[in-house]
Every structure is written in C-alpha cells, then in structure tokens.
Amino acid sequence: MSMPSVQIATTSIGEKQPPFVIAEMSGNHNQSLDRALAIVDAAADAGAHAIKLQTYTADTMTLDVDRDEFKILDPESLWFGRRLHELYQEAATPWDWHQAIFDHAKKRGIIAFSSPFDETAVDFLETLDAPAYKIASFELTDLPLIAKTAATGKPLIMSTGMATLAEIHQAVECAREHGSGELVLLKCTSNYPATPESTNLHTIPHLRDSFGTQVGLSDHTGGIGAAVAAVALGATVIEKHFTLRRADGGVDSAFSLEPEELNSLVVETERAWQALGEIRYGSDGPQQKSLMFRRSIFISEDVEEGESVGPHCLRIVRPGHGLTPKDWVLVCGRTAKRKLTRGEPTNWEMFV
Q1: pTM of the entire structure?
Q2: What is the CATH number of the domain that holds 330?
Q3: What is the dihedral of CA 10, 12, 17, 20, to 10 degrees?
Q4: Shared domain check, 35 and 183
C-alpha cells in the first residue's frame, strides 16, 4: 500500500526513494565538540542521509534527587546503578554546540535535526530552523510535547517503542490535530541493546496500514540484519545509533554502529529496496539473455534420412536452441526428413 511521501529539507521519504538512514549521535560525542563534529563527518562519509541529536538538559529530563526511583536498578541494564540525573548530564549534547553541529552538517551535505524532550527544547530548535523533529519512544505519551512539536508544521518522526496501539493512536491524533501533516512512525524495541527476537518486524506493515503513514525502524539490535529485513517489510526510514569506535566508550557505544558498519547499512538497505521491485513473472528484461541456457532437445547421434529418430539419438541438454523438453514425446519416433548431425538443435522442419 502506497502512503504519502514525507519531505525533510530537500530529501523525500517514501516507497519510491532509497531508505532514509538516520545516524543517531545521542551521547556518543563523549562531551567533546570536536568528536561530535567528527561523528558528523563520519556519518556523511558513510552515506547517511541525516545526523540526529537529542536536545535536553539533565534538569529538563529528571530531578536531581538521591532516591531509588531515580536510579537504574535493573542488573541487566548497561547503566545499572547509575542515577538518572548523572546519566543525562553525561549524555546531554550542550545546547551551545547545536549551531556548530547543524552548520557543519549543512557544509557536509547531511541533514541535521533533533529529538526535543520538553517544550523549551522545541523553542530552541526552532531558532536553528530545524527541518524536522523526532519524538522518542519514552516521550510518545507526552501529548503536550507532541502538540508543541506538531504546531511547528515540520515533519514529525515518532518512535513507538513500548506503546500500545491505543497510545499510538492518541499520539498520531494529537500530532494531526495540532498541525503536523507529515508523519513517520518507527517500530522500536526500547531495550538497549535489543535482541532480534524482541524486534517483531512484522509490526511494520501493520503500523503503516493502521495509521496511513510512512514507517520505519529505530533499531537497537547489533549489526544491520534487522534493518535490511525491515526494508523488505516496507520500512522507508532506518535509525541507528552511531559512534566513531565502540572501544572509545560512552553511554550508547555498546549498541552503536561504527563507520564501516553504517556504510554497509546504507548500501545494503538500498539494495534491499532496489530488490523489492514489483510482482513479475517470466523472462523479460535482463533475463532474456538467460533463456538460451535452458535445456532443449538436441540430436546426440547422426541419423540418416528416412530413419526413425528415437531416444537413442536424442538428448535433453543445454543450451536452449532446440525444441523444449515438453516436446520429447512428440519428437521421439519421428522420421528424419534429411540427414541429421550430432549436435544439431531440433526443430519441426527436420522431421516428416
């Protein structure tokens, strides 16, 4: 089912275009502006279409209090034992870096935009003329934030990790009621990292058909396999966390792609998109040249004029210049109209 395309800056997102690949910087700058700019360069060199930031401060995200409610207590979490306020301080992209990052991205020919996490972040990003906005999975139920962001009239990408169908419906209705005409919904599993088994890519076409939007995958699994499979199921946007080297550490490094992997993601998702094509059978196009390599019936032993042509002097072999194998029973027992030579492709004119 074809859905309305979405325009972000000069790039169109839709079924007729290669997948729109977003490199999520998140906290992988490790509190270095030089590293942040190097990540922009690496994303551009890898062929990504966009670099995405996250715009918040620790104080707009949470409270600076030392209570268990504000700590990560899941022993399986990458951030086990960390206080939320401390973690967000480490991961936050300083607001006074945004202009430099946006300008550098423009210079490198890559789109820069961000996820705002509160209304002040939307106001700030509007001063930078952000071309689009992303609502993170954890903010999908923050309808006031969605309303504020949608009111800018910019394209809106929303991750749906953890959300029920009813919660997605509320978010989509809120966005549309407040002025967002161009929406993209991303399937997302809000585990860091996520497992392939928890990714449930079959949700993608259902998401598209349920809400009439472009759809994609915000992918926290390792590698690029899930993203390539998502394209086969209709994803037109792929978002992956991105870093220069996982060995450099950082809050998101463990589930982030490195530059060569990001380049593979761009190349392989485009190949997957190209391979979708349309419903088609037969041998039109490039396959026409391959028809000659089908099997057909050839004369395998010399036959004199007037002799019966039996199975002993016929073979079904490649190439396909003779009569087709389905004609075998019609050829066997025919009489040679002339002398037939080993290696000749059969045709009806050589038989009585």
Answers
A1: 0.88
A2: 3.90.1210.10
A3: 80
A4: yes
